[in-house]
Amino acid sequence: MKFQERYRVYRQKKQELEADPDAPQGLAAGMGKFIAKAGLGVAKSIPGSGGVMEFVDSEGVANQAGEWTAFVARKLTNKDEVRLVQEPIEVLTPLFLEDLNRVAEKQTVVLLLDTYEQTGAFLDDWLRSLLNDRYDDSLHPNCLICIAGRDPLNKNAWIDWEELIARSELEPFTEVEARLYLASCGIHQEAIIQEIWRLSSGGLPVLIAMMAQGAPREIEEIIDPCENVVERFLKWEKDEKRRKISLNAALPRLLNRDVLAVLTSDEEADSLFNWLKARSFVVHHPNGWQYHSLVREQILRYQCRVSLKLWTALHEKLANYYDELRRALKLTESRQWKDETWQQYSLEWLYHIESTRK
């Protein structure tokens, strides 16, 4: 197929240029005119059989593009190869589209794009360009695109295709549906069904599937999926401080900058809070922010299992914080019970005090 052949050449030439001792220092592979002209703020990718082509943009890329272009022109004598290396998306996308449409002439083709809350940063612009016939050809009518993710598509960006989009929200299983699914997996013992349902956070299909995968015959054989779920939510985050605060910040029921400062250094609270509140599993609350209940339940179970000592210490810190807040109001005992702020602080104080007794 044309795309695969050309993609193979691209990878080969890219590796040769990267390994060249004369290559300009500090330049990411794949930089060139296509990046400078596109003005991309994030890495872009184009899907293909057997892999994903990766391109990295960084600050100063436009200034360095000329140096990279000159280097490529010196090292490659074939003009087609020069353009392929400098403008891979522009060259390879039409070939990808041509091969895809050829297959679609004979059968329905479905492009599956999963975890779009993350991959959309790489694919969204490219995909809409594909649908907008930017590459001198249209997707064959037999081509369907299935996008799966935690967040809905940006309606402003996708407004031109709104009439073609069919949205389907995946709801948790009811207990009846969970039983039917487990029966299809050969699980019929009532005690095991009840335990899987208890650990499923209200019937989340992915959790039920994880636990059913091992076809447990005894309750002891059921693997609590909380660790796998936590890792799925954090797998894209490599910064250890952010991973740590993502776990610890699940302990308070309400979040704001001051609460986060209790769990980390005050100097880091601002940047970590701004990062955390932008996560897809952190949602607005009238009194601040909070974790999505299903995510929070899994993280809490994981945290309690990993270190009961740390669990207790963090809850004690939070309890002391709320106790100081309610004392700082300096209300008389008769006024305390009528003051909504004091009541709120006291509820959070009591919650964390009770949590230390697990």
Brief sketch in words of this structure:
By secondary structure, the protein is mainly alpha-helical.
Question: What do you see in this structure?
Answer:
- The chain folds into 3 domains: 2-164, no CATH class; 175-223, no CATH class; 233-355, Arc Repressor Mutant, subunit A.
- With 358 residues, it is mainly α.
- Helix 15 packs antiparallel against helix 17 (340-355).
- The chain is built from 17 helices and 6 strands.
- The chain has a two-stranded antiparallel sheet.
- A hairpin with a 2-residue loop joins strand 1 and strand 2 (51-55).
- Helix content is 56%, strand content 8%.
| Number of individual domains | 3
Strand order of the largest sheet: 1-2
Residue fraction in strands: 5-15%
**Which segments are poorly predicted (pLDDT under 50) over 5 or more consecutive residues?**
27-59
Structural class: mainly alpha
User: How many strands?
Assistant: 6
Which word captures the global form? extended
- Taking the alpha carbons of the first and last residues, their distance comes to 61 Å
From the alpha-carbon coordinates, what is the Rg to the nearest angstrom? 27 Å
Order of helices and strands: HHEEHHHEHEHHHHHHHEEHHHH
